[in-house]
Design goal:
By secondary structure, the protein is of the alpha/beta class. The protein has helices at about 15-30, 65-70, 70-90, 100-110, 135-140, 155, 195-215, 230-235, 250-255, 270-275, 290-295, 305-310, 325-335, 340-355, 360-370; strands at about 5-15, 35-40, 50-55, 95, 120, 145, 165, 185-190, 220-225, 245, 260-265, 280-285, 315-320.
Amino acid sequence: MINNKKYRIFICATEQSGDNIGSSIISELLKKNYNIIFDGVGGNKMSPYLTNQYFSIKDFNSMGIIEILFSLTKYIKMIKLLTKRILQNHYHLVITIDSPDFNYPLIKKLRKKQYKQKIIHVVAPSVWAWRSGRAKKFSKIYDELLVLFKFEIKYFDKFNLKTSFIGHPIYYINKNSKNIDNNSMIAFLPGSRLSELNKLFPYFHTAYEYLLEFHPDIDIFIPTLPHLKKFIDNFVKNWKIKPIISIDPKKIEEIYANCNKALVCSGTASLEIAKRNIPQLVIYKLNFITEILAKNFINVKYASIINIINNKMIIPEITNSKLNKKILLTQFIKLMSDNHSNNIQIKNINNTLKNINLEQPPYTLAADRIASYL
């Protein structure tokens, strides 16, 4: 234990990957000091640790410029309430995780209210992809930034923001030893937001129809979150191949060990599938207007971080206006039948992953950095 003083920490995660990171960091911090009270925003994983949970990740379903604009009034009200609570409760430390479009305005408002305590942000905004000016803005309001990728440090160092590389949470994921040449089980990962499910599930249905005709004996596995399960149940209720749907983390890990292929919504899930050594096809679709607006700002060609790091297509991906049922089907058939390409994909992924992970656990490193402020 650090000492016997009682600390209060506010922690904010508005999406599933942040909830995963937040719960693990809290767990590591509690191993160091049992006199910490946590309040904040999180999902099912963080919830048991939070004495006061002000909002849930279920309250954050917007993705893209247009979608966020429609939710702007709601988010402004949430930021106002959270600012009030943080100032009232005199937290010793504030931690925000990812979600810069929500967390940055929250912290900016706090600083304008003369909040003087230390504030740490976990997961760098993707300034290397778009809106590079955020690096300078972050440096003005945060005390330290914990980044998942080593190449991100240089973008913030030049603005004198203390930046620490902790490595990526895929450190904790075991490689899959299943034979990828088989087609016994495929994972469908349609996203962690309802908005993603609504946009992408028609394409997962197209993939299902192909499997029904040409691979009727294959098992379909859909790992998901408690608040999304009923929607997925409704999407697949008429499927003749009944998918295995699970919200249990332990069961999900067990089932992944039997997966040979994956169709994945772009994001953290794609990197996790890559670490598991499962060949994948990545898909994503922004609102059409959001896509047009984003083209003027985005500095990278790809959606998947593995592809971005290599600046070439390691993992096949189909995104935005390029994503239609015909192109999806062509790429999906290749995923299911081209074992040579799949093996090359896994080989290139593993070469890339060597540069992502540290020898030490990311959550332990993150907890050490945070504890240094207590």
